[in-house]
Amino acid sequence: MRNETAIAAGLICCSIIIGGIAIIKLQNSDSATPQQLTKLTTPPIRITDPTQGPEKAPVTIVVYADFACDSCGGLATELSNLRHESEIGNKFRVIWKDFPIHQQTLPKSFDLHIAARCAATMGKFWEFHDAVFAHANQLIFGTDILSAVEQESGVSPSRIADCMKSSAITDLINQNMADGRALGITALPTYFINGNRNEGVLPYNQLRGIIRSEIATYDASHP
């Protein structure tokens, strides 16, 4: 078990890894604005959110995750494997939401979230996303994995460096963080399958079963 503390975008975060889930305690700081404290019941979807899969897919999975979260990487692997299944692979879309709670203890992790959003401007978000999770276990040792991720994902390092100077990219991530707090997220990964909330990494067959059930429900209502 590992205790970690992080201060992220106007909140105090304490995370404990239990059974493959990053359990986080969130406490709004005095600097939190009324807008940040507005409660949400479903995750807002914005045009700036990285998306993978058909826009009109019958299943939408909105994922709040941290690149420094092992369990988040586990979920990403499961979703990638499901994407390659012929029966359901083209019937769900994944929408990424940044929730980097480890930026105090692992400051390089927040930079990776910024860089990933910059990769999105080059049409390479998901390549970058996969490469980050492939190297994420090195983050706990303070290793700078950005160069390796840039090379593997095929992005331009100079363009990434220029883009990372933009406060607009940081604002996108902070908005995701505010939304996550408003949703009352207390574990990572937290993800919504057609609006239904889940936490942690489900067994592969269970996750597949949920997606298949949602597809069947959609097909039954769209004969």
Terminal Cα separation, in Å?
49 Å
**Nearest-angstrom radius of gyration?**
17 Å
Overall geometry comes to globular
How many beta-strand segments?
Answer: 9
Please tally the helical runs, counting DSSP H or I stretches of 4 or more residues.
7
* CATH domain class: Alpha Beta
Low-confidence stretches: 1-20, 25-36
Largest sheet: 5 strands, mixed
Describe the fold and architecture.
By secondary structure, the protein is an alpha+beta fold. It has one domain: Glutaredoxin (3-Layer(aba) Sandwich). Helix content is 39%, strand content 21%. It has seven helices and nine strands; from the N terminus they run βββββαβαααααβββα. The strands form two sheets. Strands 4-6-5-8-9 form a five-stranded mixed sheet. Helix 1 links the parallel strand 5 and strand 6 (92-98). It is globular.
List keywords for this structure.
disordered N terminus; Glutaredoxin; 223 residues; four-stranded antiparallel sheet; globular; single chain; alpha+beta
Topology:
Elements: E1 3-7, E2 11-18, E3 21-28, E4 51-52, E5 59-65, H1 70-83, E6 92-98, H2 107-120, H3 125-135, H4 146-153, H5 157-163, H6 167-182, E7 187-188, E8 190-193, E9 196-199, H7 204-221
